[in-house]
Amino acid sequence: AQTDVSLNTLSAKMAASQARTDASLKILSEEMQKFRDDMKASREEMNEKWGNLVNKLGTLVEDMVAPNIPRIARAIFGWSDIEDFMVRRKVRNKRERSKRQEFDVIAVGGEQIIINETKSRPEVEDVDEFIDLLGEVKDYFPEYTDKTIIPIFASLYMDESLVKYLTRRKIYAMMMADETMGIVNFQQVNESGTTQ
Hints:
Elements: H1 2-65, H2 68-75, E1 84-92, E2 100-109, E3 112-118, H3 124-134, H4 137-140, E4 148-154, H5 160-168, E5 172-176, E6 181-183, H6 186-191
Parallel strand pairs: 3-4, 4-5
Antiparallel strand pairs: 1-2, 2-3, 5-6
C-alpha cells in the first residue's frame, strides 16, 4: 500500500512538474513568437529607412545639379536668358494621356531646351532609358517642337567608360569638376555634330 502511495505521490509530482514544464514552454514559445514579430517589424522599419535614405540620396544629387543648369546654360551654351526653368516637373504625355513622366530639370532658352536626367548611381541602362525619353520629349512638351534639345546626363561621379558612352550618343555628361558641377565632354560632343 505504501508503494501505491509513493507511486501516486511520484506520479502527481511528475504530472505537476510536466504541467510547469508545459507552462514554461508555452511562455517561451509566446516570447519567441513575439521576438520574431518584433524582429520582422524592426527589419521592415529598417528596410523603409534604407529606402528613404536611398531616395534622399537621389534627390540630394538632383538638388546639387539643378542650380548649376542655368549657369551652364549661360556659360557653356551661350544663353542670354532663361525663359522657363522647371525642376522635378511631372507632366502627362499629350499623345498618350495614360503616360506620365517626371523630368529632373528642364530649362528653356531661345531656340534650345535643356533636358537633364540625374542619377546618384548611374548605369548604362539609365542612359539608354534617357535616350528613349529624349525621343518622347516633344510628346510631353509639344510647345517646344521647334526647339533643339540639349541632353545633359548628370551625377556626382561617372566612370570614364560611361562618359564615353554618353559622348558617342551626343549627350553631355555633367558631374563634379574642380569646385562645382561641370560638363566634362563638351568639346567631344560638339565635335561629333549636332545634338538631338
